[in-house]
Amino acid sequence: MAKKDKGEVKTNAMRILDRAGVKYEHFSYESDEFIDGAATADKLGLPHDLVYKTLVTVSPDKQYFVFVIPIDAELDLKKCAKSVGVKSVAMIHQKELFPLTGYVRGGCTSIGMKKSFVTRVDESAKDRAKIYISGGKIGCQILLAPGDLLKTAYKAQYAALTR
Questions:
Q1: CA torsion sign, 93 to 98 to 99 to 101?
Q2: At 117, is the secondary structure helix, strand, or coil?
Q3: CA 43 to CA 66: how far, in whole Å?
């Protein structure tokens, strides 16, 4: 299980991983507000190619989808739409993120959102033994096997998602 510090407060994502018996490590950093994935990786001294970000999209018929991609990559909306079987998707507006998912920008993870949304993880993660994702709040990253992310995120599969 995770490394536990005294006084550690578990996030919803960590509790879900614990219940699923998933082995993970968590890493904390000081931050009171949003910083992007690259700055987070730099703050923790992590290699950029192992750190992934979580993005939420919506289709024209108001279906929501979650995509997990490398922090330095750009989402290809056409590939994303194809991966979930819809004609198109667009990024949701930042102000919609918390009411929809229960997570804030910079602390969003595909594990334990308020509602279950189909999730796709970039196929680049398949080749990694472990990847870093948000732990469910700003200042928290989780290191886990990509296969364990697929087991704990809703209907998660690998797909080609980036340009």
A1: positive
A2: coil
A3: 25
User: What is the Cα–Cα distance from 142 to 109, expressed in whole angstroms?
Assistant: 10
Are 69 and 52 contacting, i.e. CB atoms less than 8 angstroms apart?
yes
Q: How far is CA 61 from CA 54, 93, 103, 161, in A?
A: 21, 16, 23, 21
C-alpha to C-alpha distance for 71 and 103, rounded to whole angstroms: 18
Strand-pair partners of 52:
70
Q: Which of 65, 64, 68 is nearest to 54 (CA)?
A: 68
Q: Which of 109, 111, 114 is nearest to 99 (CA)?
A: 114
Bridge partner residues of 90 (DSSP): 58
**Residue from 13, 4, 7, 18 nearest 102 by CA:** 13
Indicate the residue type of 1. M
Q: Is the pLDDT of residue 32 over 90?
A: no
Per-residue model confidence as pLDDT tens digits over 84-135: 999 999 999 999 999 999 999 999 999 999 999 999 999 999 999 999 999 9
